[in-house]
Amino acid sequence: MNKTQYVLEQIRRTKAYQAVFETDNGRLVLEDLKSFCGFENCSVCEQNPNSLQTHFNEGKRRVFLRILSQINRKVTDE
Known about the structure:
Blueprint: H1 3-21, H2 24-36, H3 51-72
Helix pairs in contact: 1-3
């Protein structure tokens, strides 16, 4: 895959994320994922702090951050 193809694929993927999450159902799912992935929470488990739980929590949070970055990305049709 050359650079142009890579950029076009990135744009296509971003537009797909945006199309999915701009719908009413998409926004509902996004709110559910926001809660499930612990987006607004600290990744460190305060009740029983340990590195495995922290990494697990951060992994879930990272998935939501990926989705959020895709739907907030600005794309131009060139």
